[in-house]
Predict the 3D structure of the following.
Amino acid sequence: DTGVSQNPRHKITKRGQNVTFRCDPISEHNRLYWYRQTLGQGPEFLTYFQNEAQLEKSRLLSDRFSAERPKGSFSTLEIQRTEQGDSAMYLCASSLLEGQAYTFGSGTRLTVV
Amino acid sequence: KQEVTQIPAALSVPEGENLVLNCSFTDSAIYNLQWFRQDPGKGLTSLLLIQSSQREQTSGRLNASLDKSSGRSTLYIAASQPGDSATYLCAVPLNSGNTPLVFGKGTRLSVIA
């Protein structure tokens, strides 16, 4: 068990391009969460999955954002037509069950130029 | 809607001092409360998880208390060390029950040798 893995660690993209991030949770964890964090702020919830089902999406998750978790294992977060305001750290976390501690990955830092 | 506030926003102390970080939340019907540590540019590390039925949790030099009725939690760090320098975040579920977490903005701690 190597914890939660996120790739890539850093991504620089031009405005208008599409980007995709990957998260590999701890293998036995059923729940997987995506958060976004900007400088000086706490993480903001984007969406979460229980196994392969996407249970909740924040209003922060515009139509340009989509997340999947096929087969209830790894997850991807795609941002289409990136904007400068999308620049942030994208964090993934997983937990075994309700009420259990979260384990976070190291994040993917996105810079849109 | 759950909101989390952390005071102070930043704190600088000399090495060896005991210190208290504060967290308050608006909806006291929480399932649990979690404290995290975040180093610059990194993901979050879970420090302590307090279930709603508990009043405190301890891990090494860290002690977290929870007072649900007043909507408050404190994180006590004993005999602080320069390696404790980081941002400390608290988080509670978004709604009553165990739903995705909402975070405070954190307290940035600097321990001076």
Notes: Chain A touches chain B at residues 4, 6, 33, 40-45, 48, 56, 89, 91, 93, 98-107, 109 (CB under 8 Å). The first strand of chain A starts at residue 5 and ends at 7. The radius of gyration of chain A is 13 Å.
